[in-house]
């Protein structure tokens, strides 16, 4: 049985000592008004950003409707820097094999991959064969994560780890040289 309450007397002694929540103006939480200072990585990419923005600003504006600033995102700058470093590497044995892959072999590869899927891919009707192959590679998790890394670097990493990435993907990447450096999902998330 609960203890009996006393009636009358001092009301303050019978009230619980729990604090009262205040929803007034005094308890309002606001965001800090100062902008964060650039980090070391951002400072290191500023010269690259200036160089890229001078060259690509006119091209970027003509290709798409720009609603934000014309400066590329930090992640985009890092991926472009990786891609520039990869282009100047000497051709390896896999690169030589990939350059010999024909359009017909790419079509055969894609037909095999498509037959392994569960159903038709209606959302890919208007995509080129090369873009279908690259998007399939982007979403193949057995080759490692695709966020924050160029497709070519991801393919080379998977090859170095003996994960047997398809040579057809390397063929498409070497023939495109520069276009579609980032994974499609990486572009969507950033």
Give a topology summary:
Elements: H1 11-14, H2 40-63, H3 74-87, H4 93-99, H5 103-116, H6 129-138, H7 151-160, H8 167-176, H9 184-189
What's the quick description here?
This protein has 190 residues and is mainly α. The protein has nine helices and no strands.
Sum up the structure in keywords.
about 190 residues, mainly alpha, elongated, DNA_pol_delta_4
Going by helix content, strand content and strand pairing, the class is: mainly alpha
**Shape by Cα distribution:** elongated
Overall pLDDT, averaged? Answer: 75
Number of helices: 9
Which ranges are low-confidence, i.e. pLDDT below 50, for 5 or more consecutive residues? none
Verbal overview:
- By secondary structure, the chain is mainly alpha-helical.
- It has a domain at 93-190.
- The chain is 52% helix and 0% strand.
- The chain has nine helices and no strands.
- Helix 2 packs across helix 3, helix 4 packs across helix 8 (167-176) and helix 6 (129-138) crosses helix 8.
- The longest helix is centred in the first third of the chain and has 24 residues, at 40-63.
């Amino acid at each position: 049985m609960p203890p009996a309450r006393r009636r009358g007397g001092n009301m303050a002694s019978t009230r619980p000592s729990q604090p009262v929540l205040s929803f007034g103006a005094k308890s309002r939480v606001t965001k800090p008004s100062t902008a964060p200072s650039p980090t070391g990585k951002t400072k290191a990419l500023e010269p690259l950003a200036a160089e890229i923005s001078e060259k690509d600003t006119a091209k970027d504006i003509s290709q798409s409707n720009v609603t934000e600033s014309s400066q590329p995102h930090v992640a985009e700058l890092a991926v472009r820097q990786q891609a520039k470093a990869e282009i100047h590497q000497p051709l390896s044995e896999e690169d030589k094999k990939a350059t010999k892959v024909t359009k017909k072999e790419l079509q055969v590869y894609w037909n095999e991959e498509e037959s392994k899927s569960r159903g038709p891919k209606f959302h890919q009707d208007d995509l080129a064969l090369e873009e279908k192959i690259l998007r399939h590679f982007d979403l193949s998790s057995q080759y490692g994560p695709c966020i924050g890394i160029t497709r070519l670097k991801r393919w080379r990493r998977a090859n170095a780890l003996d994960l047997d990435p398809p040579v057809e993907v390397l063929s498409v990447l070497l023939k495109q040289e520069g276009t579609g450096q980032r994974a499609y999902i990486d572009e969507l998330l950033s």
